Amino acid sequence: MKKITVLLMILVLSTVTVFAGSAANGNSIGDKSTIDINTEVEKQSLFGVSADPLKPESFLSLEKFTDAVNESMGVDVKITDLKQKTLVGYVSGINNTSNKIILSVQIFPLTNQDNPNAAKIELSLLANGNSEDSLTIAPAEAVLGTLPSVELLVYGDPAAIDLAPAGRYTTHILFRVIAN
After folding, report:
1. For the whole model, what pTM was predicted?
2. Nearest Cα to 105, choosing from 166, 44, 175?
3. What is the pLDDT of residues 15-28, one digit of tens each?
4. The listed CATH number (3.30.870, 3.30.410, 2.60.40, 1.10.10) that belongs to domain 45-179
């Protein structure tokens, strides 16, 4: 009986020693476990045009933003409306980088498509009420940068418009990223 008791004590002590050794080496289960998760967010600097101002919720995600803007759009106006400032749309942008994104803004003259020899009518563009040749999509500290619904107004010289030969006229406004 003494032999069995001694054998059991040796067995218990060796079991405790093995488990204590495992715990000391950090191999125990239930002491502490972790899962490390790594991911990446792609850089996104986007801009687009729209007929109406974007709603604030359009800037809550890149998906909502891309659903709200267009790469291009067409606008029909009466040429006589261009004698005064005429709203033709909006440009908006979103930027999740730490860099400022600068867009160049260029408007081309009205051109008579039916009479290529007719004089072109120079136009001016106002962005948010100012004569601009560039717009900036700049992030604030730790915030997604936005360029929310910049109003685009176009106008021309009333005399040139009054004296314009009959025909179908076209022009376009070009936005390009020039710096980031």
Report:
1. 0.73
2. 175
3. 544 445 455 555 56
4. 2.60.40
